[in-house]
């Protein structure tokens, strides 16, 4: 159990650092400077917010996670060590599966990916409907992959902080996906309708 905890913690820390700071933030900032990424904030009268405001919002968001994890690292339930080990192994496998699925979707989406805190969905001028990779069978694979990863983390570390984050992503990503569907339908019309006919909304092969 002790060895597994160390291995699992190392895997989670390394992958979270990679997806948060290397794949997500660094890649996004680079594309943002080139005008190839969706901005974090909505434009003001056709003008984009300065880059430093985007950085401040991200730093504040990360800072808010500190008290959540400090005060919310309370067990959801108590189980025997053998059961905890089994749940932890299942959780780690789910986390890695979700993480890999997110990477696959992110690489497939390419420059059309972007961060946004706005309720409005901002599409790039040259935006296209991606229909390769996981997008060949599900329209919002990154959200699904993140849900699977968060479920795995919650099984691996069954604490209230992670459960709250998991529940919040279920609600926020589902709402975001529906707003994206509206924006894409308005932009691509019949092309989007045809794409929807052979894909699922957010859970591959199911829904």
Quick tags:
single chain; 207 residues; mainly alpha; 6 helices
Overview of the molecule:
The chain has six helices and no strands. The longest helix has 32 residues, at 2-33. The protein starts with a helix and ends in a 10-residue tail after the last helix. It is mostly helical and 207 residues long.
Quick structural gist:
The protein contains six helices and no strands. It has 207 residues and is mostly helical.
* Tally of individual helices: 6
Kindly state the percentage of residues in helix: 55-70%
Order of helices and strands: HHHHHH
The total count of strands amounts to 0
Q: Ranges with pLDDT <50 over ≥5 residues?
A: none
What is the fold's blueprint, element by element?
Blueprint: H1 2-33, H2 51-72, H3 81-109, H4 141-156, H5 160-188, H6 190-197
Helix pairs in contact: 1-3, 3-4, 4-5, 5-6
């Amino acid at each position: 159990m002790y060895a597994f905890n160390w291995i699992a913690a190392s895997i989670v820390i390394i992958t979270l650092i990679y997806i948060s700071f290397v794949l997500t933030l660094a890649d996004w900032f680079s594309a943002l400077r080139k005008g190839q990424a969706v901005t974090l904030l909505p434009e003001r009268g056709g003008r984009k917010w300065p880059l430093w405001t985007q950085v401040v919002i991200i730093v504040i968001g990360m800072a808010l996670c500190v008290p959540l994890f400090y005060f919310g690292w309370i067990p959801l339930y108590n189980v025997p060590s053998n059961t905890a080990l089994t749940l932890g192994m299942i959780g780690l496998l789910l986390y890695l599966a979700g993480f890999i699925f997110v990477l696959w979707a992110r690489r497939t989406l390419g420059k059309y990916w972007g961060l946004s805190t706005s309720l409005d969905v901002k599409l790039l001028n040259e935006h296209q409907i991606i229909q390769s990779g996981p997008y060949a069978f599900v329209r919002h694979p990154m959200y699904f992959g993140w849900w699977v990863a968060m479920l795995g983390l919650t099984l691996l570390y069954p604490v209230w902080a992670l459960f709250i984050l998991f529940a919040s992503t279920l609600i926020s990503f589902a709402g975001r996906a529906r707003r994206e569907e509206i924006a894409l339908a308005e932009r691509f019309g019949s092309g989007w309708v045809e794409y929807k006919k052979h894909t699922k909304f957010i859970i591959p092969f199911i829904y």
